[in-house]
Design goal:
109 residues, mainly alpha, 80% helix, elongated
């Protein structure tokens, strides 16, 4: 069987290039969100771990009621929430910023 050779029109080439640009921009936006979320999670872990562990050692109520599992749950919940909130806000802000840029047109007049 022979393959059919179909010539692409400039409009089709432009739409494929535009799709590639959109995919690359989406990948970059999500990568920025992941990096920002990871940084926020690290900071939230440190900011939560210190007071949680200190209170579990010093306060009588916390010593009686917060075992190691509860302390880990508190710290990991805060870290996870910080990651998802910051990552989502970063992706949305980057997408909003990029939506106002003028699209690049490769169509010849």
């Amino acid at each position: 069987m022979s393959k059919k050779v179909v010539a692409e029109s400039p409009l089709q080439r432009n739409s494929l290039a535009s799709l590639d640009q959109k995919l690359a921009m989406a990948k970059r936006c999500s990568h920025e969100g992941v990096v920002a979320g990871a940084k926020a999670a690290v900071l939230a872990t440190i900011a939560t771990a210190i007071p949680t562990m200190a209170s579990a050692r010093m306060l009588p109520w916390a010593r009686a009621n917060l075992n190691h599992t509860a302390q880990a749950l508190i710290i990991s919940t805060v870290a996870g929430a910080a990651y998802f909130i910051v990552a989502d806000k970063t992706v949305l802000a980057t997408a909003r910023k990029n939506s106002f840029k003028r699209p690049i047109s490769n169509i010849e007049a």
